[in-house]
Amino acid sequence: MAGDLLGKPIPRIEDRPLLTGRGRFVDDIHLPGMVHAAIVRSPLAHARLRGLHRGRAAAVEGVVAILAAADLEPHLATTTLSVGLPSKAYRLVVDRPVLATDEVRYVGEPVAIIIARSRYIAEDAAALVDLDLEPLPAVSDARLALRPEAPRAHSGAATNVVAEFTMAYGDLDGAFASAAHIVRTSLLQHRGVSHPIECRGAVGHYDAVQDCLVLWSSTQAPHSHARMLVKLLGCDENRVRVVSPDVGGGFGPKLVFYQEDILVALAARIVGAPVKWIEDRREHFMATTQERDQHWDMEIAADATGRILGVRGHMIHDHGAYTARGINLAQNSAQIVPGVYRVPAYELRVTLALTNRVPVSPVRGAGHPQGAFAMERLLDRVAQELGLDRAEVRRRNLIPPEALPYRLPIKTRGGTEMIYDSGDYPACQAAALAAIDYDGFRARQATARAEGRYLGVGIANYMKGTGRGPFESVTIRVGPSGRVSIYSGATAIGQGTKTMLAQICADAIGVDVARITVVTGDTGTIALGHGAASSRQAVNAGTSVHLAALAVRHKLLQAAAIHLEADATDLEIIGGTIRVKGVPAMAVGIGELADALAGLPGYGIPGGLEPGVEASRHALFEALTFAYGTTAAEVEVDIETGAVAIRRYVVAHDSGMMINPMMVDGQILGGAAHGIGNALYEWMGYDAAAQPVTTTSAEYLVPGAPEIPRIEMVHIEIPTPHNPLGVKGVGESGTIPAAAAVVSAVEDALAPFCVRIGETPIRPTRILELIAASRR
Amino acid sequence: MARAHVTTTINGDVVDFLCEADQTLLSALRDELRMTGTKEGCGTGDCGACSVTIDGRLVCSCLVLAVEVEGKAIDTIEGMADGENLHPLQKKFLEHAALQCGICTPGILIAARSLLERNPDPSETEIRYWLAGNLCRCTGYHKIVEAVLDAAREMRS
Amino acid sequence: MVDINYAAPDTLDKAVALLARTGGAKVFAGGTDVIVQLHADLIEPELLVDIKNIPEVRSIAAEKGGFRVGAAMPAMKILDHKAFATAWPGVIEGVALIGSVQVKGRATIGGNLCNASPAADSVPALIAAGAVCTIVGPNGRREAPVETIVTGPGKTSLAKGEIIASFFFPARAPHSGDCYLRLTPRTEMDIAVVGVGVSLTLDGSGTCTAARVALGAVAPTPLLVAAAGAALVGTKVDAAALAKMAAAASAACRPISDKRGTKEYRIKTAAVIARRTAEKALERARAN
After folding, report:
1. Chain A partners of C262 at a C-beta cutoff of 8 Å?
2. Neighbours of B (≥3 Cβ pairs closer than 8 A)?
3. What is the 3-state secondary structure (H, E, C) of C76-106?
4. What residue of C is the nearest CA neighbor of B115?
């Protein structure tokens, strides 16, 4: 029945095949005659590419083709990947070439593609291509990159500053001049790789029957991939189709259009056979975009009671060697610093530096964790300076619910205003504190301290603009089979997107979820789409589905009213049947109606209705809807080894009305685990020559089941007025406050040593160094 | 070099295949036999996505050579359900939404089954340590642990 | 690129003959290191000699009041051996940390030793236990204490064609206990930053009569630190003796700084872990 499904923890429709080994991930695709690709990559971070000798590789039995930049050029309308989101802040245009031509600029940059009978052969042959490289000085650190004498990440460039901007509002000078307290802090924030358990991969297939180049890619954004392919190949839209099959996790970097996407597609056309390329884990660490380092120098002005008067500072952001997505990470970090707090004056100057490391792109949280970390560290410093409780300092500065909607005088990247739409931030913080028994903590801490154990508690608030538009396309169609099909530009990468869309659709129409088929991530089935990113699909695609489903319901009822000769208001939809309320015998199947509305040659459509039972919607979203929350963590630090154990972990959050609470839980839990990894374990290391030094999962340290604690959740459901479902995004919420809360807790545990922590991840070696330094 | 001929039992069926001497069992399953339920996540034994059992012993199939399994009995995810009847672990994973993208799931199910065969009543900590070799980036492990506890309960009763 | 061949002989003699005959032959047991090295092109053997079909290297049995453990026994099978686990809980702790359950389903202590990583988790425990290797080679059989095998990262004292067949663990005196603890950034599935094995024996009055302390991951090879053991012998293993032992352990460290930990960190925490390991071994000795 309509209206009874939202908010229910129904099982996911995606799961049965995945549980039985029948998932269809890109590496599971096998086509007759398929050959396999391996990529020849730069072993150096910066070098002049003087030549490429393919003799030894070409001699390997089973090698089909070796393609370098010059071999591809005749087939391409353009040889660079221009993907950067627009901004006036750019100082340099640094797009990636499809394949390097005369210079390589990061370890892992593609130089050639080998096609062979098997992956083993292709990889062996790739190792036999001799690159003639003349090493050039590499820039490995964003701060060093900005020194005048620094080598240039791109030879001949005037600067390593790829972009710069300032985000500011309010009377900053006044704020700092009148402040009772000014506190400064410097932060080194590292975030690492996405590390989905499925690496990237693609299968290219030129379908001669349809004259269409099909690319199955493990991507979060097939529609933007198709647009890029059209641009690169200079072809008709009808000649390209991109499909995102089952995707084994995305977490941001699978949003990016990569060199391998065009290489695989083009190679399939050149060699005349389907081509598969599967990234291995080592390549994932070298060649998939990551987030990395931000260096923050911040100061905060507060009055005598701890109220914030102003925040200002400078941030240097490591952009990597090229623009693979844009300056959005740095923008997100900068615009979210004020977050849930009243900050009357704010200024952040941001410099984005080129380095000879793989380009950066969003990873779950996309710059927001760093913005939150900066603000939360500043608030801890204020608390320490004033001798106040850290939760109390926050409480005094939270924007009260009566101040909503609250306009932050900052514009989003698209130029729209940031208006916090709905919520109750103080209630959320209070809920988190209650859940972790914050009031009882000092007693627990004292008891432990008496036994020589060091406990600490930390809290952090966060804010996240979710549901980034402009829209997500949806078409819903009822077929003569009686099945309801949803086609959407939304992309399912494991979050339960198909279930979410089906649940909204079933709720609006009144049919069973089991009757619904959801087709996502296929440019052959719907013209427009944006895909999975920015915690956006429940808001954008969800709303489009809701509106389209209401239109389909209306159409079904109209058609049934004609068929049953009843008034539409007397009808109800149960399962796949429409019947007159109270008269079960007067009923018609929705398939029967769809069949009738499909028409017959020479016969009219019943009632003169528009043909077909379908509706398309592209609900437009200019404004973001702001999700927020509080994380509280209790940790124990072993002061002899620096080991940190999380004892309790609470997330209180508001993502608006929940469509499926079980899936919301999953997003929070997974996001929190990712953030805990960033706080304590994960580190993507490079040496001074910009060589990556952590290229296996074991070296990089993705947390496993023993490291992640049980996570307690408090769901607060305050609907947003921006969409009819009242939903806000949740995909990144768990991640954003994690490092800030955990680091705050570690610092609290080490309070007897007056240790100050301004970096992530905080690892045992560093903790012992900080303790030792405080004792000196 | 001539390819080696291997005869083995997979999920109860006798199977023959040809492979190279340095080819992994994972590759033989996926590329020679087209049994793609077993997944590749790292190729170095760090993630557990390729978990299978050989003669009842839990291993990473990326760290086994295909030539080694001559005469052995291998169990993979494809043999876990009995036709359309899901194994209790699969049922509980479905009920708890203990999977998201599903790429690590076959390996985790195989590992969890192997745990429950040894220890029908594991504690939460025992489950977490047993699954330490199975990385998951989506779920934060919480629901996986819950589903295994719940399946163990059901299988005991 | 070389084509690789595979052989699975059923006796040690045949294995030794294969190794002697083929230039680029490599012993293959659990394969958890070899397969990774093979696919990363770090090694290019012409022949893999799989020794898992040889009964002698795949068994565990009581011998002369102690135990003989086949070098190619998978770690999980060792962990499941109740009598051995009772006698040598510290060795079990080391073996339990070799890797995930999946890796331990394959990995062997012979392989863990012969891979010659300074951070191998079972090795300090084997050294502390005083385990002795039985080695078979072209010139027959010989015996060698575990601490003499690893000579540097990736290097061993084994001659060409030699295979470690088994490890002998001597009979346990009353009031003996051992322990292995390690430090890693992650709780599990990680490579030791510091690993310490301690085995000690007390007399009836609680005085330590024998002690062996071995360190891993703090030098190019696992170390048997005689001075650390000596610091405990003749004492009641009190705080002063433990501090002296820990200081000796720290002093023996010759670590490098790498992504897992700095040199200073390793030296400092080696003392902490040595003390904790000895305390646990002591607790076990007192209970026996």
Report:
1. 765, 769
2. A, C
3. HHHHCCHHHHHHCHHHHHHHHCCCCHHHHCC
4. C101
Pairwise CA distance, residues A623 & A618, whole Å: 15
Print the domain residue range for C23: 5-49
Residue A648's φ and ψ, nearest 5 degrees, are -140, 150
Query: ipTM beyond 0.95?
Result: yes
DSSP state of C69: E
pLDDT in the model for residue C21: 84
Does the beta-carbon distance from B105 to A674 stay under 8 Å? Answer: no
Tell me if A661 sits within 8 A of A7, measured CB to CB.
yes
Query: Could you tell me which CATH class the domain A31-136+195-287 is placed in?
Result: alpha beta
Does any CB of chain C come closer than 8 Å to the CB of residue B4?
yes
CA pair distance A695, A285, nearest whole angstrom: 5
Domain boundary assignment for chain B? 4-79, 88-156
**How far apart are alpha carbons A700 and A363 in whole angstroms?**
15
Q: How far apart are CA A66 and CA A54, in angstroms?
A: 7
Residues A526-562 pLDDT 10s: 999 999 999 999 999 999 999 999 999 999 999 999 9
In this prediction, residue A1 carries a pLDDT of 67
Query: What CATH class has B4-79?
Result: alpha beta
Taking CB atoms and an 8 Å limit, are B46 and C189 in contact across chains? yes
DSSP string covering B38-69, please?
Answer: S--S-SSSSS-TTEEEETTEEEEGGGSBGGGG
Tell me, yes or no, if B76 comes closer than 8 A to chain C by beta carbon: no
CB-based contact, A640 to chain C, within 8 Å: yes
Q: Which chains would you list as touching A if contact means 3+ CB atom pairs under 8 Å?
A: B, C
Does residue B116 have a pLDDT over 70?
yes
Q: What is d(CA C217, CA A693) in angstroms, rounded to the nearest whole number?
A: 18
A714 inside 8 A of chain B by CB:
no
User: Which residues of chain C approach chain A closer than 8 Å at the C-beta?
Assistant: 1, 41, 183, 185-191, 193, 259, 261-262, 264-265, 268-269, 272-273
Could you tell me the two tokens for A468?
A: 């980034």
CATH topology of domain A469-617: Aldehyde Oxidoreductase; domain 4 (3.30.365)
- Pair A470, A501: CB distance under 8 Å: no
Instruction: Determine, for residues A707 and C1 on separate chains, whether the beta-carbon distance falls below 8 Å.
Output: no
Query: Does the beta-carbon distance from B60 to C103 stay under 8 Å?
Result: yes
Grouping H, G, I as helix, E, B as strand and the rest as coil, residue A345 is coil
Class of domain A293-468+622-775: alpha beta
Model pTM greater than 0.90? Answer: yes
User: Where would I find the beta strands (DSSP E) of A719-772?
Assistant: 759-760
CA distance C104 to C89: 17
**Residue range(s) occupied by CATH 3.30.365.10 in chain A:** 293-468+622-775, 469-617
Q: Residues C38, C40, C44, C48: what is their CA dihedral angle, to the nearest 10 degrees?
A: 0
- Chain A residues within 8 A of C185 when measuring between CB atoms: 680-681, 701, 763-764
DSSP secondary structure string for all residues of A53-90: E-HHHHTSTTEEEEEEHHHHGGG-S-SEE--PPP-TTB
The structural architecture, per CATH, of the domain B88-156 is Orthogonal Bundle (1.10)
Q: How many CB pairs under 8 A join B and C?
A: 84
Among A542, A504, A449, smallest CA distance to A729 is for A542
User: Which one of A16, A20, A735 would you mutate to disrupt binding with B, by most B Cβ within 10 Å of its Cβ?
Assistant: A20
